Amino acid sequence: MGSDELAAFRRDIAEQRRPLPRGNEDATLVVRGADLEWYTPPGTNPSHLAPVLGTPIRTFELFMQEIPPGVASDMQQHNHEAVHCVLAGSGYSEIGDRTVEWGAGDFVCVPPLEWHRHYNGSDTEPVRMLLVENTRLLAALGLNYRASAGHVSWSDHRNSLVDRDGDRA
């Protein structure tokens, strides 16, 4: 390594040691649940989502999610990690080849790139979850990805992956 390369390397290391910029000093430190704005995503996901916006958080996102009674979310895949903290209701999730049951107080962990769907197990009460996703960190690195297969059954989706790829994805 020549002296110019060494000097450039040392500059890079010094740059990496600089602290991240401070958050917006006017950012909201408390987001009131009553102030969340709910929407239904376009397409085939019948869930209702409310992003928690205006905070100084830079590496992850927070959402409230509500799944109506007797309904399932769309089948989706993403390369970020996601944790769903179940605040109210009960149901189950299909995550990859596994089916897991959950209820209020549980945490549902979705690993990167696993096709998954969440089901509300009640015909009368909605499910409400707090979602924590490391999407902002991946987006800052240019690595965020999300796909939806829509509202297909797990077996139909798995068969479509086999048909497309020649073996199980």
TrEMBL record:
Name of the protein this chain belongs to: Cupin domain-containing protein
Keywords assigned: Dioxygenase, Oxidoreductase
Organism name: Pseudonocardia kongjuensis
Annotated Pfam families: Cupin_2
Transmembrane domains' residue ranges: none
Domain Cupin type-2, first and last residues per copy: 64-132
InterPro entries: Cupin_2, GDO-like, RmlC-like_jellyroll, RmlC_Cupin_sf
